[in-house]
Amino acid sequence: MASIDFLLQKCKSLSHYKQLQAHLIITGLFRLYTYRSNLLNTCATSASGNLHYAVAIFRKIPLPTTNDWNAIIRGFAHSEKPTNAISLYLDLSRAPQNPDALTCSFALKACARSLARVEATQIHSHLIRFGFELDFLLQTTLLDVYAKTGDLDSARKVFDEMRVKDIVSWNALISGFAQGNRPNEALNLFKRMGLLNMKANDVTVLGALSACSQLGAAKEGEKVYEYIKKQKLDSNTQVCNSVIDMFAKCGSIDKAYHVFKSMPSTKCSITWNTMIMAFAIHGNGFQAIELFELMDREFFRDNITYLAVLSACNHSGLVDFGLNLFNSMKTIGIEPNIKHYGCVVDLLGRAGRLNEAFEIVNSMPIPSDIVLWQTILGACKTYSNVDLAEEASKRLLEMNSKNCGDYVLLSNVYAGQERWGDVGRVRESMKNKDIRKVPGFSYIEVNGTIHKFINGDRVHREWKEIYGKMEEVRNRIREHGYEPEIKYVLHDIGYEEKENALCYHSEKLAVVYGLISTIEGSEIQVIKNLRICGDCHVVIKLISRVYERVIVVRDRTRFHRFKDGACSCKDYW
Ligand code: ZN
Ligand code: ZN
């Protein structure tokens, strides 16, 4: 026995395994469970092993034991074909032998790797049937599977049922919520960890930072950063990159740059790209370009760097610089991808150079995509170009785009020209294709609590106060010459109704709530999930002057910093 184990350890190649198996068969030892099982195990799971050969050995066993099954299932769970592990597990659950806790754990790992949600639920029910549901390791694995496959409610349930929760389980749930667009829950869990004196690690803070970025929760983000510094987690480059990104997305570009400059860990190309992108979304085009020039040409710049600078040009209206940069990409060996094309088309489109944008899309060496044509359609709306808008819509239809925004844009182009018949036609086809609007919503953080508003919101507990304040705001900004831009309302309805529909856009509600719930003169920060609309932009500019407030709105693509009646985007977005 000892000598066979010794020989097993020495196996380095398939032929070694074959020789050893032959030896076992000749000497009759193969029939003895221990020898066979050790051979199978090592061959299926060790780095020097060979999974295919292990399967061949396995198939020769007349009545494989659970351990034999485990060896093969474990081997597949870690292989390039984790789904094989799941099907083997299902075979075993129908065989006379029962799976044990190890089998379940390997099969669940395979589910996590292949994102097999349905099968994970099935295995979960087996765990309960076999009485393994309180096994700590199995619970952790199960939690991980649910979090990774996006079944966050089940993940939460497993987590709550765990008697012992270690850092791995906290991290699985926090990352799951952060990646599953439920940032509030991720952040609450992180805070609860603090209350329980649980020590967070780099994985935890990455989840918390991502949650803060999504929510634009500047104050909470600041606290996470303080924690990171205290625990010396800022020696991790990835953590620092996320801190930069978080500050940028929470509106504090100065803090982002400060972290960038004083990073204790080494910068990598992602660090530079993150900072350039941060300047881009804040409309600091020149600073983005300056950083780009500083970047070491040979070691750092990659296609993401170019994307970041192009988007900086985009948000700052640096059309010719961006165009030159785009044309120079090929000469230095970086092939533009669809995102670079998207940026340059956007750049030209916003500047009103629609024909040039059209030409670029038509002469692209790669197939165009829906986003590109949406960009052109958006530009057509801004410049009221009906012909090109119709052409872009035709392409979008061919690509089977089901985005309601496309229809809204086209109908807005028509509405701008008061072509109500065409507006009606577009609306009709929207109904026929069952296309619904993506609901717009906005967040505002007040005293550490995140408030969410949807358009026409009457759910917030202070909605009456907010609507009352809105009346006052409306009257005061009218004295400053405000006229509602009703062309932004899709419906062909009466003037007053249109004005009301505009009045309760989520970003306006959030800003007005900021006015009544924060100290006079303090800055108001709002996050909007879609692009800010033209009317809200005008209104918030006026609010910033009349109420003497700095208001920062992060929309889907960039930051707007409203101060003294003007916006940092210079009305270019
Ligand atoms: Zn609006
Ligand atoms: Zn703006």
Describe this structure in words.
This protein has 573 residues and is mostly helical. The chain contains 30 helices and six strands. The chain has helices at residues 2-10, 14-27, 33-45, 51-60, 66-77, 82-94, 101-114, 117-130, 136-148, 152-161, 167-179, 183-195, 202-215, 218-230, 237-249, 253-261, 269-281, 285-294, 303-316, 319-331, 338-350, 354-362, 370-382, 386-398, 404-416, 420-432, 463-479, 495-503, 506-517, 534-546, and strands at residues 441-446, 449-454, 524-528, 551-554, 559-563, 566-567. Helix 11 runs parallel beside helix 13 (202-215), helix 18 packs antiparallel against helix 19 and helix 23 packs antiparallel against helix 24 (386-398). The chain is elongated, with a radius of gyration of 30 Å. The protein starts with a helix and ends in a 6-residue tail after the last strand. The site of one zinc ion (ZN) has 5 residues, from loops. One zinc ion binds next to helix 30.
**What value does the average pLDDT take?**
88
The number of E-state strands comes to: 6
Kindly state the percentage of residues in helix: 55-70%
Unreliable residue stretches: none
Radius of gyration: 30 Å
Q: Which ligands, by name, code or SMILES, are bound?
A: zinc ion
Strand order of the largest sheet: 2-1-3-4-5-6
Multimeric state: single chain
Structural class: mainly alpha
Main sheet: strands, sense, barrel: 6 strands, mixed
Shape: elongated
